[in-house]
Amino acid sequence: MKDKMKIAVIASGRGSNFMALVKACRKDGFPAGIALLITDNPDAGALESARKNGIESFVVDCGPGRGSMSAESSSEMRRLCVERGVELVCLAGFMRIVRGDLLDAYGGRMLNIHPALLPSFKGLHGQKQALDYGVRYSGCTVHFVDPGVDTGPIIIQKVVPVMQDDTEESLSERILVEEHKAYPEAVRLYAGGKLKIEGRRVLISYE
Ligand code: GRF
């Protein structure tokens, strides 16, 4: 992984975004490589994928709080990342709000992907919220992580039309296709030094 920015992916579930990043990182000239996968779920599909792809992986018990993580688990994740020289942390379907040492260490160096066009439909089930609200367009957002929930500066959004006969599943599937393009794109920009945060806005350099 010489000359490549080391990234850590943190995921709780199936791990399709993790795999999209794995594939992107294998491409010639991609400026980042995955140093490790961390999960809070011993049954996560992402864990199985990491093992199959020879990527170092760890299960960290984040405690009983649904949606939150213990202070110890946040410290443990920070340690795992710092010890491996990780420069960017990518949350990919991590079902807990990141607080504590991990966020302190990686503030401004942590990304998340959300299955809706933020700032609409934050939190859980973004696709169902969009469908229920009746919007004509939804999509996905890759953004920097700040102490709020899905509130950090936005890097990339991709738009997906909502069809009349969409179900939560069909809409989620079409959004996911765009997620798998958006996340590698955002990581490529970040690792290539192309992003600058100015207040709420993220400026992209195209030179
Ligand atoms: C994705 O829809 C992502 O936007 C959301 O959680 C889901 C994770 O899916 N944060 P996967 O585990 O990457 O397949």
Give me the CATH superfamily: Formyl transferase, N-terminal domain
- What spatial order of strands do you see in the largest sheet? 3-2-1-4-5-6-7
Bound compounds, please? 5-O-phosphono-beta-D-ribofuranosylamine
Stretches with pLDDT under 50, minimum 5 residues: none
Largest β sheet strand count, sense and barrel closure: 7 strands, mixed
As a percent range, the share of helical residues equals 25-40%
Q: If classified by CATH, what would the architecture be?
A: 3-Layer(aba) Sandwich
Distance between the termini: 25 Å
- The number of E-state strands comes to 9
Quaternary form: single chain
Q: What is the name of the CATH topology? A: Rossmann fold
> Helical stretch count?
6
Q: Look at the structure and give the CATH class.
A: Alpha Beta
Number of domains: 1
Question: What fraction strand?
Answer: 15-25%
How much is the radius of gyration in Å?
16 Å
What's the order of the H and E elements?
EHEHEHEHEHEEHEE
Mean pLDDT: 97
**By helix and strand content, what is the structural category?**
alpha/beta
Shape: globular
List the helices and strands and how they pair.
Layout: E1 5-11, H1 16-26, E2 32-39, H2 45-52, E3 57-59, H3 71-83, E4 88-91, H4 101-106, E5 110-114, H5 126-133, E6 137-144, E7 154-161, H6 168-191, E8 195-198, E9 201-204
Parallel strand pairs: 1-2, 1-4, 2-3, 4-5
Antiparallel strand pairs: 5-6, 6-7, 8-9
Helix pairs in contact: 1-6
Bound molecules: 5-O-phosphono-beta-D-ribofuranosylamine (GRF).
Residues 11, 13-18, 92-93, 113-115, 176, 179 line the site of 5-O-phosphono-beta-D-ribofuranosylamine.
